[in-house]
Input
Amino acid sequence: MTDTLHWAAEYIGLPYHPEGEGPDSFHCWALVRYVSEKQFSRPLPEIDVPKNALGQMQAIRDELAGSRWQKLQAPCEGACVVLRQGRRPGHIGMWVETATGGGVLHCIERLGVVFQPIDQLSVHGYRISGIYQFKG
Output
């Protein structure tokens, strides 16, 4: 990320933990919830996220399939970005606008919190599956 003073910089490098709810460690949904509330004053719902990766993926998919979410046609700062590796979506991050374009802030099991410009998501095998905004 070239914006060294960008708000997202404070999260980059924080570790992944399957039970991490912040502020010192996160799983992917916890990072999105924490950042949404802290940076945008938009609380997101608590969901029962299992401690295993497969369970986390299913819980996130189930939540976003509900009527409380609006699918967006284009990303905007703070939107939830659903990512997939392979055919099924199962990971989530947050859209971040920077001076050089946009990308996704997300928490990866092996690396912790990272920012990836949209054209670099494929480095870890990710593709955008959908972009969502919480309606309440």
Summary: Residues 16-134 form a domain with the endopeptidase fold (from Nostoc punctiforme) fold (CATH 3.90.1720.10). Residues 28-40 form the longest helix (13 residues).
